[in-house]
Amino acid sequence: MECKVYKLNELKNYRYVVVLSxxxxxxxxxxxxxxxxxxxQGGHIEKGETPLEAAKRELFEESGAVEFSIKPIFxxxxxxxxxxxxxxxxxxxxxxxxxxxxxxxxxxxxxxxxPKELTYPDIAQVLFASAKELFN
Length: 136
Prior knowledge:
GO terms for molecular function: hydrolase activity. By secondary structure, the chain is of the alpha+beta class. It has helices at residues 51-63, 121-130, and strands at 2-6, 16-23, 26-32, 38-39, 41-44, 65-80, 83-97, 105-111. Strands 1, 2, 3, 4, 5, 6, 7 and 8 form an eight-stranded mixed sheet that branches. It is globular. The model has no long low-confidence stretch (mean pLDDT 95).
């Protein structure tokens, strides 16, 4: 899988949002119920939804974040031989977590640095490297 970042609003026809989350000064990642790996919060932009609305919804659904500031930081493209997609990457600074709603996610955990056990390592490493100043 290849991943590239672009200036905000450079790409069009967004399909996904990715949220890079910070909680108590650390990276906050989620673990899917069916996987042993960690991932960012994010997902499809639903019909009639703006990227910001999708990012806020996905952040709550996949982490339980109820108090946070969130902003778009750049666009991304990810693809391989089977296809590609574009989306907007957001940065969220979370100040309060609540219980996660029933969803596909099992748990959330903070990390000082990206763990080796990532669901989408090729994508996560590129996105976090592009936003590293926000996590210092």
